[in-house]
């Protein structure tokens, strides 16, 4: 999927919003604010935790509220989404709520967006889990599975990342991602790769003007990426973006 970009783009990754938490209130306050701006918005995955879209019995008020927001706002701005490893069958069931929703990659101009798990080792846990779970059969099974929501609860604990991961432990996976990012640049004809999933802010130069960036997990400090129309990227708490805009008038 590909298109060209004009307005500044807000990038929101790994908010991992849980129902009835301070994080949920903060998240929807931010959406209210975005609705009052002219930003386009890109949800880079793992935004609502855990999201199985195979039927209403899995979806909470937060999911419905989020979808209603996206559906309303896509009339006024671009609302883009890539599925993370905590979102299942979103594209299959709710594609129409977004300007565009992708299970894997989304290309805008010379930038490629993804969640980040798709850039990990082919036979590693995340990629294998994707192949195993994210297909029509998985969706169908989850649709009728007795005690499905109980099973989803187990999955949620299993996938839960807990606190901020140790950056040292990410060194090896990120080295691999760096290699894969170069391949993805070639494959998709882009020079910039932007992803979530690793929870830390990361910037790597790949040579020949190519680069990749990781947008940090929103859930820790409510940080977003602001991608200007000229391609420059800044990461800061959404409240600061709001204040800066207010100062500018
Ligand atoms: Mn993730």
Q: Describe it for me?
A:
- The longest helix is centred in the C-terminal third of the chain and has 22 residues.
- The protein has a single domain, classed as Purple Acid Phosphatase, chain A, domain 2 (4-Layer Sandwich), CATH 3.60.21.
- The N and C termini lie far apart (35 Å).
- The chain contains nine helices and 14 strands.
- The chain is globular, with a radius of gyration of 17 Å.
- The strands form three sheets. Strands 1-8-9-10-12-11 form a six-stranded mixed β-sheet, with helices on one face.
- Helix 1 links the parallel strand 2 and strand 3.
- The chain is an alpha/beta fold and 249 residues long.
- It binds manganese (II) ion.
- Manganese (II) ion binds next to loops.
Number of strands: 14
User: Remind me, CATH topology?
Assistant: Purple Acid Phosphatase, chain A, domain 2
For the largest sheet, list the strands in their spatial order.
1-8-9-10-12-11
Regions with pLDDT < 50 over 5+ consecutive residues? none
What separation lies between the terminal Cα atoms? Answer: 35 Å
- Relative strand content: 15-25%
Instruction: From the alpha carbons, calculate the radius of gyration and give it in angstroms.
Output: 17 Å
Number of helices: 9
What is the domain tally?
Answer: 1
In this structure, how is the largest beta sheet organized?
6 strands, mixed
Question: Helices and strands: which structural class?
Answer: alpha/beta
What would you say the CATH architecture is?
4-Layer Sandwich
In this entry the ligands are: manganese (II) ion
- Inertia-based shape: globular
The helix/strand order is EEHEEHEEHEEEHHHHEEEHEEH
CATH class label: Alpha Beta
Global mean pLDDT: 91
Overall helicity: 25-40%
